């Protein structure tokens, strides 16, 4: 029920961190992997191929809407079709809200929210045209539920992503398309490097996590495999926290 053998997954932003762990986790469950992003995913490709899976990389700026139709078309052509889309690519900009710039607002919203919708739309159009379903997994955040501080555009984008996940689930469930999300807690990635380097914030965060540690990217793979598999066929619009118990406290 959890096997992804014979399936093809497109994962955005999979060169490092959470996206890389998700891509490798899906490959370990049997999926061939396509990745899309600006940076070269050489390490991810090596890990996927070492598992005996096929790998294809697409170079694209996911902050540019103009790139998204090409990403969808190339992903579709790589292995014949796409079965799973993981919208993982995301950026964060930090500044006090009194000082936050329009440039930083737009940059984050374009990658974290706008591109998610339009790439999902492009892939879903392929599925509908081919009369087949598929799985979309969005990567939300603890800030889909909470406010946070000094990250206004990130919070807005991730809160919007939670709503978009539910909206697309409502519209597309009847077409055999599952749209769900994973909300990672505090993980040790490039995006949280500044927080982990701040001794006070690092201590405050660890004190609230019942598991007592920052998440490792590999901790996310199981949830992604589950939502991508037939085990989750009746799940629509769910936002699954993988947070070491953060929201439970």
Topology:
Elements: E1 8-12, H1 17-28, E2 32-37, H2 42-50, E3 55-59, H3 68-79, E4 84-87, H4 102-129, E5 134-139, H5 152-172, E6 177-184, H6 193-197, H7 199-208, H8 221-228, E7 239-242
Parallel strand pairs: 1-2, 1-4, 2-3, 4-5, 5-6, 6-7
Helix pairs in contact: 1-8, 3-4, 4-5
Give structural notes.
By secondary structure, the protein is an alpha/beta fold. The protein has a single domain, classed as Rossmann fold. It is 42% helix and 15% strand. It has 8 helices and 7 strands. It has a 7-stranded parallel beta sheet with strand order 3-2-1-4-5-6-7, sandwiched between helices. Helix 1 crosses helix 8, helix 3 packs parallel to helix 4 and helix 4 runs parallel beside helix 5. The longest helix has 28 residues. It is globular and about 50 Å long. The protein starts with 7 loop residues before the first strand and ends in a 7-residue tail after the last strand. The model has no long low-confidence stretch (mean pLDDT 97).
